Amino acid sequence: MTDFRDVFKDIRDYVQVPRFAGLRLSPDGTRLAGVVQALNPDGRSYGTALWDIPLTPEGEPRRLTRSAKGEAGAEFTGAGDLLFVSPRPDPTVKEGDDTEASALWLLPAGGGEARRIAARAGSVGAVRAGGGTVVFAADVLPGPEAGDAERRRARKEAGVSGVLYDSHPVRFWDHDLGPGEQRLFAAALGGETLAEIRDLTPEPGRALDDGAFAVTPDGTAVVTTWALPRPGGERRVDLVAIPVDGGERRVLASAEGYDFIGPVEVSPDGRHVACVRETHDRVGRDGRDHRVPMSILWVVDLATGEGAAPGGELWPAAIAWAPDSRAIYLAADHGGRRPVFRVPLDGGEVERVTASDSSYQQICPAPDGRALYAVRSGVAEAPVPVRLFLADGREEVLPSPAPALRLPGTLTEVTATADDGAPVRGWLVLPEGASAANPAPLLLWIHGGPLASWNDWSWRWNPWIMAEHGYAVLLPDPCLSTGYGEAMIRRGWRDWGPRTQADLLAVTDAALERPDLDAARTAVMGGSFGGYMANWIAGHTRRFKAIVTHAALWHLEQFLGTTDAPHYWRRELGTPGGETLRRLSPHLSLEQITTPMLVIHGDRDYRVPVGEALRLWWDLQRSSVESKFLYFPDENHWVLKPGNIVAWYETVLAFLAQHVLGEDWRAPESLS
């Protein structure tokens, strides 16, 4: 095994590590296709490729695709051909007629070169197959699909970039939604080509934005999420079925106050569809919380539309049907882990399938019902493909194109009791060499969401980089964290700052009782909601030496009017000028802030727009708070470009070294 310990020391080495990112099993169970992300030759971006993953530990991975543009979206057909999406050039198209848009490709099961089988001027997106039918999503300008390419060309030649909207939303995370709209197209797969391609959704509006869909096993229908604008800027997502022969769209699941969202999976016998039902937050007339947002497994009878929630409060992350259609395998957040559960449809007891502390995604049941293939990972384990034997619970790690990593420290747990008596827990990353004689400084790292959990590996928010540089890292799951039931979310809903801070400080105090941690050298950092909490803590305690706040909410009323999803946050935070916004907005505690702060934000962040950082930065400057602002003009909510990742970590480490370790300030080499 190659020793990759030093990749956590130099961020330039870290960003070069290949990453296992996805798994798909062929219908006959004989092939696994894996998705691997790696640094492109230019060193400035990442690309993905498809690999053949052995079904047993004895095999060797084999690369299936290779291009400068990369490939993604692996999907097997019933015949075993592999579909994927890529903007790679088509060698069969005359130079000058090709496009930079992503197209749909097919790699024959019997071998040979991949061939392009569908292209659209606005790019092909997700693809699913079933019963000889292929369905794919594509971006199309409103109007007849046949003239899409010509109208796009006319807009470009006329220099028109404007988009006229008549309803919300207009942006999503890091991209504009217009002028095109997502549509679904279907075609029969005849050999290695597509027959007549049919537009299943000619006038969808914004219904299919960020949607999820699946094809029935017989290939006669596609089941998809369908978003509807509602009065007052609200939005609701239904689940619908659309016949591929051009029949009428049929609503399967719809209810005010709920969204039916992906993942969407149809049972092998074609009788049921599984999805996620997400509850809308709602306040009662007496002002009390009558409902908080919860996501649960929802199963719908395709014939009658009757629905049920067989998984209880489990918060789904991945869904896969058992081959006999009598149960669902569900990966769900649970106590700081993400195990796999077997959920029977007959009302029987939910059974935990995996016993380890790991987290699982991309569940692929073997057709014979004896095993599951999945991607396994954890806070202390980078993603790997595994085979899980259902009879005895054994797991085998399968060969991966991504290297195994050696971690510079150990992982343990910390538990505490909050001031309201609720249990709170978190993971604690300990650096090598930490002891009572050499206690490590502590970094409290708050997760985003807020509906989330520290239960998985993160290439973007990686605590092992900090451990390599001598920090212990506390990764707590306070109120609002998923995997602890509705009561844990209800504790913090509409009480973000005060309740969450109390939980965070309780678990921090418990961790600092350890003799190998230094209570005099502590810092806080967080991104998104974690950044909001970092800002809140800055104005409500002075116990920390430094605070790093990334993509953070600062002025809640300003945020509510500029985020890409104001309808969602208004349900909890209320209307402008309301009591909740005033009570929970960190900017109102500016005068109490004295702790040095590092503010970080990307200009293409539409979930938490950059105006939050600009206002926070100016407020700190005019208040003479020691602070720095790391700004990325070309990054989104996360900061994903390799060079910018290097700059991000180098700046954070330099800032912490100055204020926590007492070293002189040294400007990051990457920014010089």
Give a description of the structure:
This protein is α+β, with helices and mostly antiparallel strands and 672 residues long. It has a domain at 409-664: Rossmann fold (3-Layer(aba) Sandwich). Helices cover 16% and strands 36% of the residues. The chain is built from eleven helices and 41 strands. An eight-stranded mixed β-sheet has the order 34-35-37-36-38-39-40-41, sandwiched between helices. Strands 9, 10, 13, 14 and 15 form a five-stranded antiparallel β-sheet that branches. A four-stranded antiparallel β-sheet has the order 1-2-3-4, with no helix packed on it. α7 (556-562) runs antiparallel to α8. It is globular and about 70 Å long. The chain starts with 10 loop residues before the first helix and ends in a 13-residue tail after the last helix. The model has no long low-confidence stretch (mean pLDDT 94).
In short:
It is built from 11 helices and 41 strands. The protein has 672 residues and is α+β, with helices and mostly antiparallel strands.
